[in-house]
């Protein structure tokens, strides 16, 4: 299976990086920064399955080799340990730029590094895109809307972001990354795409990464209380990872720059989320209230009209459908491959 002749074409020299929708005849050479992470590794699965050659660039801050090791013998796959804050020379057709810690616990751990990753890292990848004529996709975030005063959030909303708070390294970092992306587009003609991703969950999330879905699932499996921060009435909208990956690929292959909200409009309070986790894992799972973190957005829900109209995309998997798929992956990782729960 892995010895098929390579059909990789370095297209950017003669196509200017343009890949017409539906006319993709050659396989592409694609960089996925952050490809050993949660979202990145699922994207790599789809690109490899489509026949493309994939170079994963990752410094393993939050990513894991285990997420991509099933490709180690595949000649269409390469893994480079590299920090995107340092320059990088590659010849590629497309760049999916995901490298950046996404969990608040991780991005607050070293905030200056988070800013450097968002700003210098994005600058380097845009410089690379400019040099080789590659198409560049930025994975921005719903956090650019801050603690939103408009609900649901539409792409035209400029947001309500604290520039000096503990989340600013991420929010403002991503806002600057969007600015850089648009400036390379306008100033240097780089073909760019911007996705604003809303809370996403699924298999391969770090078990203890501090995000709410992974926390609740791991806690319920371990028979620990689920930690609800604040009064639990704040809302988020949870998207299953395969829906996101489909959206990212449609955005990359389509003709529109964006920004596009990519998220599931199904909105839940944290207490409602805890209830869905109880239904899925253990009806007796307990809840424990903890003080909330600083600057926590009160509500978040995407308006996805633009993505529906221009990308023909909308999420297919509801929280109640997606959660069991994540739970079986977590069960295996929490308890080990061949053990039953609680053993
Ligand atoms: P993740 O932490 O699982 O993955 C991020 C990956 O980037 C990891 O593999 C990490 O090792 C790598 N990385 C971090 N800093 C790096 C650096 N300086 N150089 C090279 N690699 C580096 O997170 P994720 O959930 O997969 O998020 C992927 C992208 O999507 C991020 O850019 C994130 O901001 C964005 N996003 C995710 C969500 C979500 O809910 N998952 C929501 C909004 C935006
Ligand atoms: N860069 C890179 N790989 C490349 C081309 C550029 O990492 O293939 C980096 C480069 O080191 C620079 C950044 O991208 O720090 C921006 O590059 P650009 O050419 O736009 O700006 P300049 O180098 O002129 O400041
Ligand atoms: N949260 C929670 N318990 C946890 C982790 C998070 O109640 O164990 C809350 C958090 O306060 C926030 C929401 O869940 O209101 C989403 O947090 P997460 O860190 O997953 O993502 P965010 O959207 O804040 O980046």
Automatic annotation (TrEMBL):
Signal peptide: none annotated. Pathway: Nucleotide-sugar biosynthesis; UDP-alpha-D-xylose biosynthesis; UDP-alpha-D-xylose from UDP-alpha-D-glucuronate: step 1/1. It comes from the Eukaryota. GO terms for molecular function: NAD+ binding; UDP-glucuronate decarboxylase activity. The keyword Transmembrane applies. Its EC number is 4.1.1.35. It is found in: Golgi apparatus, Golgi stack membrane. Belongs to the NAD(P)-dependent epimerase/dehydratase family. UDP-glucuronic acid decarboxylase subfamily. This is UDP-glucuronate decarboxylase. The gene is UXS2.
